[in-house]
Amino acid sequence: MFSKIVTLAAITLFCHSTVHADYTSYAGYKVYDIKAENPSQQQLLQQLANNEAYDFFTLPRILGLPTRVLVAPADQTEFEATLSSSQIAYKCINENFGATLERERAQNNLQRSLRTKSQRSITFSAYQRMAEIDAYLDELAATYPSRVNLKTIGKSYEGQRLRTITVSNGDGRANKKVILLDAGIHAREWIAPAEALYVIHQLVENFAANAHLLENYDWVILPVVNPDGYEYTHTNTRMWRKTRKPVTSICSGTDGNRNFDFHWGEIGASSFSCSDTFKGQSAFSEPETQTLRDLMFSLSGRAKFYLTLHSYGNYLLYPWGYTSELPSTWHDIDDVAQAGAVAIKKATGTDYTVGSSTNVLYAAAGGSDDYALAKANIPISITMELPAGGNGFNPAPEKIQELVSETWIGIKAMAEKVVTTY
């Protein structure tokens, strides 16, 4: 969820689509794990995070939780010297991030190629491209017409369809309450759309085990909020995070999760168009965020739970993102989030940290979760940061099934809490 990258040395890397279309290799990039042991060390890491040369994958505010950073070859000596001079312990956990990406890319392509025409249109042994995601949704709509409804609710900047799938129990009751789930607002967070697809799979294809979640609720799911960026991470720059609409002659894209019109741009967002956390030229400048906003309001009064999926870091976060203060109903939201964390811990032993975005992770205004609670009046609004599953960014393809299954345990527990309370 957190990220920055760009000094002059890196601007070309992240905006290079306007220059050439070669796939970015990230050869020699290193990944570091760091643990701040005291507030002064934590403050230094916060300062380093403001340097666009360093890509902070995670930057928790809680002492003792690991911070993970990606650093380009040209910046590694200075980065290590800065940490050493402040006696901050660090460990390089990946000496060549580019090699890891290439290996996982090859694995992913192999798994996708192994699927035969006789198999279902999606598996959880590979990260899917948009064409495969669309094919899976079409397959479900054709196979389960009484319980699945597809709708194109908008288009991305590049003209890709933004499609929701509404899953019901087929009883024909109109205006049921709704659980709204989305994923993929940050392009590079591939495990998030994979999880959204797994949720769809559970609700539709494993209906008998999950029918209680659909008795009085419909689920409306937008599996990929940012399809342009998502495709771009497959074809060009793996670590691309933003949308793809041009901003200047050299830089494209806006951080969709800084673009919502609630305390927009006040904190934790950049005005620099090449930054990974660029807030946009105005609130709702992006067609993708406009579409998600309109979806929220179309469900006004019905939507009781908004869950947005990100990666990574094992967090269940809730508003506010713009301030350390808490909403008046934070206890209600915390109860739901805690239900998810407890269920995952009990089932697999994996720990999730629960709390408000600002107090647990970092301050960032303009997020979809804040907007859902404050403006769309969805009473339970939670951001789920899925695990990394390795020493890179996203889990390797062979880890997808394990992690989407684990995450579903938490999502199901949260949904059960909501459907029995609201």
Write the layout of secondary structure elements.
Layout: H1 8-15, E1 30-34, H2 39-49, E2 54-58, E3 67-71, H3 76-85, E4 90-94, H4 97-114, H5 130-143, E5 148-155, E6 161-167, E7 177-183, H6 191-205, H7 207-210, E8 217-222, H8 227-235, H9 287-298, E9 303-311, E10 315-318, H10 330-348, E11 353-356, H11 357-360, H12 368-374, E12 380-386, H13 400-421
Parallel strand pairs: 7-8, 7-9, 9-12, 10-11
Antiparallel strand pairs: 1-3, 1-4, 2-3, 5-6, 6-8, 10-12
Helix pairs in contact: 6-13, 10-13
Spell out the key features of this protein.
422 residues; alpha/beta; Alpha-Beta Plaits; Aminopeptidase; 8-stranded mixed sheet; 4-stranded antiparallel sheet; 13 helices; 12 strands; 36% helix; 17% strand; globular; disordered N terminus
The CATH architecture of the largest domain can be named as 3-Layer(aba) Sandwich
Computed over alpha carbons, the radius of gyration is: 20 Å
User: In DSSP terms, counting alpha (H) and pi (I) runs of 4 or more, how many helices?
Assistant: 13
Spatial ordering of strands, largest sheet: 5-6-8-7-9-12-10-11
How many domains is the backbone divided into? 2
Unreliable runs: 2-21
Measured as a percent range, the helix fraction is: 25-40%
What do the pLDDT scores average to? Answer: 91
CATH topology of the largest domain: Aminopeptidase
Explain what the structure shows:
This protein is α/β, with parallel strands linked by helices and 422 residues long. It folds into 2 domains: 8-103, Metallocarboxypeptidase-like (Alpha-Beta Plaits), CATH 3.30.70.340; 120-421, Aminopeptidase (3-Layer(aba) Sandwich), CATH 3.40.630. 36% of the residues lie in helices and 17% in strands. The chain is built from 13 helices and 12 strands. Strands 5-6-8-7-9-12-10-11 form an 8-stranded mixed β-sheet, sandwiched between helices. β10, α10 and β11 form a beta-alpha-beta unit. α10 (330-348) packs across α13 (400-421). The longest helix has 22 residues, at 400-421.
